[in-house]
Automatic annotation (TrEMBL):
Residues 3-58 form the HTH deoR-type domain. It comes from Streptomyces cellulosae. Keywords: DNA-binding, Transcription, Transcription regulation. GO terms for molecular function: DNA binding. This is DeoR/GlpR family DNA-binding transcription regulator. Pfam families: DeoRC, HTH_DeoR. InterPro entries: ArsR-like_HTH, AsnC-type_HTH_dom, Carb_Metab_HTH_regulators, DeoR-like_C, DeoR_HTH, NagB/RpiA_transferase-like, Tscrpt_reg_HTH_DeoR_CS, WH-like_DNA-bd_sf. It comes from the Bacteria.
Amino acid sequence: MLADRRHQLILRALRADGPISVVALAEKVGASQATIRRDLVQLEDEGLLKRVYGGAAPVVGEDDPFADVAGVRAEAKDALAAWCADLVRDGETVLLDIGTTAHRVARHLHGRSLTVITSNLAVYEELQDDKDVQLILLGGVVRRDYRSLVGFLTEDNLRQVHADRLFLGTSGVRPDGQVLDTTAVEVPVKRAMIAASAQVVLLADAGKFPGTGMARVCGPEELDVVVTNAPVDEKTGSRLREAGVEVVEV
């Protein structure tokens, strides 16, 4: 079994069962205990779980509820959202990530001949009555406070679709270009969105450099464009451009 598949099964087991032993994981995944231990080391390094004696435990998220974040840096987020909406061409299929900035992108897409795919309940509510937009809501477990859908159903749905571009949110961008999130449960969905998209556009206002987060979503090589509202610090900007990322200051 490929490592990525093992990691997916390990994270699913943690989401479903909570803390679990190496022995139990080895049985569930069908791998040796030595292999599972190496997997746990890697997943902990990526911030996706916490190793405990004899096994692993899920990481408890530290993100803020949607309503609390919606008004933070609202003007900056709206400027980023407007630029991203202008990037979209009629007839495209667009993936919108969770979060308040993606919701603002949706506000600028009204009346457009588009297909929008999302796990963001705020985006769904924004566009549900717009007959010009074909709206696809991904399945999954509802996180009510965070207005999102997560879990293996969401990830499985994403493997069945392809988008022209993804507008991806983040909690922070490290100086080495690594994209972070504060909540491990959202990370597999974000990764599945990246895999389903021809172009990945990261929306990161000035507060996201370096921002917060302990779970790694992706490296700079998986991004195509970073849109921000302030000059990116020299080290981060250099790393992004080295990876072929277009950095746009709105």
